[in-house]
Amino acid sequence: xxxxxxxxxxxxxxxxxxxxxxxxxxxxxxxxxxxxxxxxxxxxxxxxxxxxxxxxxxxxxxxxxxxxxxxxxxxxxxxxxxxxxxxxxxxxxxxxxxxxxxxxxxxxxxxxxxxxxxxxxxxxxxxxxxxxxxxxxxxxxxxxxxxxxxxxxxxxxxxxxxxxxxxxxxxxxxxxxxxxxxxxxxxxxxxxxxxxxxxxxxxxxx
Amino acid sequence: xxxxxxxxxxxxxxxxxxxxxxxxxxxxxxxxxxxxxxxxxxxxxxxxxxxxxxxxxxxxxxxxxxxxxxxxxxxxxxxxxxxxxxxxxxxxxxxxxxxxxxxxxxxxxxxxxxxxxxxxxxxxxxxxxxxxxxxxxxxxxxxxxxxxxxxxxxxxxxxxxxxxxxxxxxxxxxxxxxxxxxxxxxxxxxxxxxxxxxxxxxxxxxxxxxxxxxxxxxxxxxxxxxxxxxxxxxxxxxxxxxxxxxxxxxxxxxxxxxxxxxxxxxx
Lengths: 206, 267
Prior knowledge:
Number of strands of chain B: 12
CATH topology of chain A: Rossmann fold
Largest interface: A-B, 42 and 38 residues
Strand order of the largest sheet of chain A: 2-1-3-4-14-13-12-9
Distance between the termini of chain A: 23 Å
Strand content of chain B: 25-35%
Number of helices of chain A: 6
Oligomer: heterodimer
CATH architecture of chain A: 3-Layer(aba) Sandwich
Order of helices and strands of chain A: EHEHEHHEHEEEEEEEEEEH
Radius of gyration of chain A: 15 Å
CATH class of chain B: Alpha Beta
CATH class of chain A: Alpha Beta
CATH architecture of chain B: Alpha-Beta Barrel
Largest sheet of chain A: 8 strands, mixed
Largest sheet of chain B: 8 strands, parallel, barrel
Radius of gyration of chain B: 17 Å
């Protein structure tokens, strides 16, 4: 069973609906103990980093997620759920979980025709093969909505990049942890494919 | 680089798909859920549902439509019509919509845009504006006026000013709907779309007048739009979403090409 972390960070039902459609059993839980003992975790979220991390700490979810990571439980972070995995976010100057060294920073774009947030469909370039991205085709696009981007310290933690004037990490990987800046649950067939692969992924990065 | 989006607009009345011409003479043309699914499988990028149900007693029917669409369509979609408060917005978001869409209610109560943006984030708050071409005047220097109530009531507000105000109040996207072009199939109002796209820093969705694939090309290039809204062009089977995308792709517009449903073979 996949446990979806409920920490009042936006619409969690989209992920649940996508998993239901794929016939994958999941539940949304606000309970830290359930997360600490989960066999598989999705950490979604939309909204602002500051309130998201505050809600997470109030529930003891930060500890639970770190415990689960240490145990080797497969974890998938999505959007804010990906940003919070890094050490720090510029948004609300927020200290985050630090499961992957690096920070989340705001887009600074010089081209006035480019808009912030980076919202809509964009491609990804896979920089390191990963089992969850094995079904991605060269022309596939994914749905993004974000004003801040993932900037991990080490290249080994980047699974894919996207170019929006700035080339940023659109997917992160570290051992049993995988995270996407885009929303697989709203990205049509290639997005659903990532969720489907996650449901059986053993947590091994290669 | 982001792709340009094609968005299908579904007017829903009492749970049925309706198509209006110049906002009057609406008629039932099918099941919105089946249509949404068909377009999704054909590679559509996004959907907009406008609830044009006359009676507020029937609003729950719309929530049910949203819920059923969200269970089988995995692209973003927004819901508009009848959203007058944060609570109304919350209901459609919880039912599975990605964004909410406000129009007349925001003209009457501009604070609504800020309230929605504060509650759910700007990316959730779309401002739709119905625009009518008028003779330029001191009050309407751009020659484009905001109208409400389906185009029947002129508001004495300049559309260009309203677009900028909407952005300042927190709207994350603008739908610019030309009442003059709506239903004509003669093409989008390119000048209006460009005027607004150049003046704001948020995405602009062009609406009203699409009849041929060239019209989409024009508004996404000359018109400066980030997305093109289509309705009757695809509702009656005259064009498929896929054929529109292939056309734009061939003409060099960056477009997402993706068809089919869930399953794909392991590579």
